[in-house]
Amino acid sequence: MADLAAVMPGERRQLPALRMGAETLVLILLAVFVTAMSIAPLTRLVLAALAPEGVPDLSHAWDVLARPKVFRAALNSLHVALLSTVFAVAVGGFAAILTVHCSMRLKAIWVFGFVLPLMIPPQVTALAWVQAFSPTSPVLGLLGLALTPGSRHPLFSSWGIVLLLGVYNAPLVFLTVRAALHRVPADLSEAARAAGAGRMRVICTILLPLARSGILAGAAIAFVSAIGNFGIQAMLGIPARFPTLITLVYQTLNSYGPAALSDMALLSLLLSLITVCGIAVANWLGRRGDLRVEGLGRPAEIDLGGARRWVEAGAWLYLITTLLLPLSALFATSLVKGFGQELTWATVTLENYASALIRQASIRDAFATSFVLTIAAVLILGVVSLFLAYFLSWRRGPVVRALQMAAELSYVLPGIVLGVAMILFFLKPLPLVGVSIYGTVWIILAAYLSNFLALALRPLLGGFAQVDRALEDAARVAGAGFLQRMRDIVMPLLAPAMVAGGIIVFMSALNEIQVSILLVSSSARTIGPMIVFLEEGGSSTLAAAVGCLMVLIVLLLMSVTSLFSSRLPKGALPWLD
Amino acid sequence: MASISLESVSKAYARKRVLAEVSLDVAEGEFVAILGPSGCGKTTMLRLIAGFEQLDAGAIRFGREQVASPGRSVPPEKRNVGIVFQNYALWPHMSVADNVGYALKVAGVSPGERRRRSVEALATVDMDMLADRSPADLSGGQRQRVALARCLAARPSVMLLDEPLANLDVHLRAAMEREFSAFHRRTGATMIYITHDQSEAMALADRIAVMDAGRIVQFARPRDLYREPGSEMVARFIGNGLVLPVSDLRADARPGHVEVDVFGRRHAVRARRGQAPAAAARLSVHPDDLVLASDEAGGFDAEVERITYRGSHIEVHFRPRRAPDLSLSLHAPHDRAIEPGARISVRVGDGWVLPDAA
Ligand SMILES: Nc1ncnc2c1ncn2[C@@H]1O[C@H](COP(=O)(O)OP(=O)(O)OP(=O)(O)O)[C@@H](O)[C@H]1O
Ligand SMILES: [Mg+2]
């Protein structure tokens, strides 16, 4: 055989010189993108935590983590995250059973109201609750329920944080449990009814066990979301002197500046560890004895009978206290000159809105910056996630899988951890350009791209799963090259999924606070942290006006998307049933 | 148009061998059908020819040009092949005419010329009136026609069809079969046509390649495949074939014929020229080749097991007395009154001694 090869040297020339196709080039660009945005910063974070001087130094790590202050903060974080998860699972699970299996009047409106808190920035929610239950509350005051002046605010406590985190995360659990319940075939509960089981028994012995994996997945999401929720923990925890890991990171940067970066890296690593452990435990529980049932069609109907009126009343009361009351308090505060002032025809003023939109340049600029950054993130992530989802769905290999894992990691880790990683990675001047992007809008954009890539990716992966790959093969045999196929065939087919992903990224980036809170500077501010700064600075009425404006934007966006919901992939947007 | 040749092509997915040293030569303008049980590697072979998969060993040539060898492969978009997919794969966001004209657009043909040639291709399948419809508004048969026209408009050197009629109902299949046949005559395209359906393959193809477990077991004209199967697998696979054990094979006076003992009766059957005498052999027959003998001496003894009414004839399931575990069947006219349990005498009208077992 060796001789044969020797006498046929011509065969060699048939091998092509390494010519890089567009496909390879795009893959390389994707790898560079994800590496620069996620992998490198997170690696840098781990290095800064465990080897601050370039050599592994665990004693330093131990010194920092063993401080009583850190230990207490970690315990506090776990405390609020776990308790709020229990709350969210109870409320979200109950709401899911109620809306899927029970006949309830005005169900669609109730679902919209129940999911709405998820779309409102958490710091706005916190502000609204604080104002609703403050001793000088304009709304409770009208009802004659105001708390005694001078007493400590009831929400500035660990219970306040637990309550608000629970209310904020209940819709997350609701969405996953609802999806799980929809998959339970009706005949399973009907068989149980036929066997003589009553309503409660069917729920407890049939529906809940079969929806278990959905409940646990919802619990994991709620836990991760609670641990990383900066808005609520900061707005309530800092005045309550109840430090959690996330507020500790924030206060460390505020008090010591970038000099304390290696300490912050350690705290972030601890925070990440807790997050990952939470997910791992939920996964492990979910996998034990997982019963997979798949059914389509209508879910089983549970007749509430005489209890219906009471259940409905309770459900609406929940919405009134958790949504209407806080939001109306927020609105009322935004209409008066000074916090605590009574809202009457004489005191009502649009002064705060005028300040927010026109007079105060810093707020106006923050709105503009947020809009520009958000739109940039939506556009860039749209293109990146289209290509990444293409490779993940149709050209799966180890490289793209690693990229997907990196994207997922940047998404589940608390935003503040990502912020620390971004500072660490981008603090030094960039090569070639020679300037550092720290303190500019660019670092915030980079953090958005890192954090929200997984969000943009999800609807697209779902979309690709529904497209027949032969459509692309057919374009290939028609002679179309890679980029041409992407433009002519793949992109038009996946446009709805891309739009859905874009809307979700838009909402998340506009509402976020935890990613940019560490990255904002006097020259680059986003709107999310603005509320915290205003509230900290004592301008509660102005903060309320900004909060109302943000809620308005969210509501506008939700109603606009509802208009063309039939064109969007089903189930891609949480507020559309 | 071009000839296609596969030379000892092998392909494995994760160590699992899917194609094992497959060689196939398709002449220019020939219509070849690939027939075989599910999972035998038909689609894989087609995708290798199209260039969607890379081969592990061997080579593929179109005409004189080598398009694939290990480590070197012309990508599908450069091979100038046309494919008709089982589920049509029409692009839902383009009109019928845009679907058909896409390859021309990619090739840089001007819009006017593109439109003219698309409509022309659509006219050959009688679809030119529906050029501006969306594919979603067409019936299954119409979609298949558009897929055919799309393939045609690109003027490919080779046309590949993967079970193109599998999703259509029986009546439409017959109509589309005629369509394909006429289409092939008109265009003279080299076509490779995968199907599960033997009658479809027999009706359309110049030659049929029968595949089994990643190999081509026989490549022959339909008539030869039916009358002279090369192996027991082919004999059983084609036309509900039966294989009978026979003994005492001796030469017959006529060339190409031998005399064998079938369940105790002597019969003259066909065999390879130069078939050597043997003590035992296997005989390939079809239900139509077995006939009821009018008298007991004419054939071998058998007992009727059950009767199935088939409209044009009745199907008689029976077991030979000499080999009661063997269940066979034959076709009989209606006028014979036969009851289950009855004794009959069966004669082998025509049969073929399988060469490999001899
Ligand atoms: N991408 C793949 N990865 C792993 N195995 C594969 C892949 N594609 C096909 N196979 C395996 O290769 C074998 C041949 O598949 P192929 O699709 O060619 O069969 P086929 O003859 O077309 O079958 P059918 O008539 O059912 O369409 C099967 O066992 C299949 O499981
Ligand atoms: Mg196949």
Q: Measure the end-to-end span of chain A.
A: 67 Å
Low-confidence stretches of chain B: none
Task: Please trace the helix and strand order of chain B, writing H or E for each element.
Answer: EEEHEEEEHHHEHEHEEHHEEEEEEEEEE
Strand order of the largest sheet of chain B: 7-8-9-3-10-11
Count of extended strands of chain A: 0
Stretches of chain A where pLDDT is under 50 for at least 5 consecutive residues are 1-18
What compounds are bound to the protein? adenosine-5'-triphosphate, magnesium ion
Query: Which quaternary structure do these chains form?
Result: heterodimer
Task: Give the helix tally of chain A.
Answer: 25
Name the helix and strand elements of chain A from N-terminus to C-terminus, one letter apiece: HHHHHHHHHHHHHHHHHHHHHHHHH
Reported for the largest beta sheet of chain B, the result is: 6 strands, mixed
Discrete helix count of chain B: 8
Structural class of chain B: alpha+beta
Gross morphology of chain B is elongated
Q: Over all CA atoms, what is the radius of gyration of chain A? A: 26 Å
Protein name (chain B): ABC transporter ATP-binding protein
Family (chain B): Belongs to the ABC transporter superfamily.
Domain ABC transporter (chain B): 4-238
Keywords (chain B): ATP-binding, Nucleotide-binding, Transport
